[in-house]
Structure prediction request, 153 residues.
Amino acid sequence: MDLRRSNFTSADARDCSFKNSKLVGAYFIKTVLARADMQGADLSDVLMDRAVLVNANLKNTILARAVLTRSDLTGAKIQGADFTNALVDRTQQLALCRYAEGQNPVTGADTRKSLGCGSKRAFKASSPSNPDGPQVNEAEKDAFRSSMPAYRD
Prediction:
């Protein structure tokens, strides 16, 4: 269905099906969408402030630039969802990153990357000033020093 810019503010949409719907720019402020089927829906630019999406099916949805502040996504199925530039609370982001996977079939966005998930281990390894990251061993340091030209005092 084409439901672009629709207003579902404070609606009780439990168990509703929005499967493959175009919901670009829709309002879902304080909306209860528990167990709703939104698989494959385009939810770009939606405002879902304080929405309840507990156990909702968000597989392969496009949530680009969506605002999901103070929303509850506990148990939501997000495989293949595209969260590119979406505004998600840090606690929700961390919870979703625990099981985020897949790639959106329409946009090609990786779910983990679009959510901003990262590996703490990979982050430490990539930081050159981090003492827990990779270090240069003494033999390499000595080889570098010996390659430097000697200057007169």
Remarks:
- The longest strand covers residues 67-68.
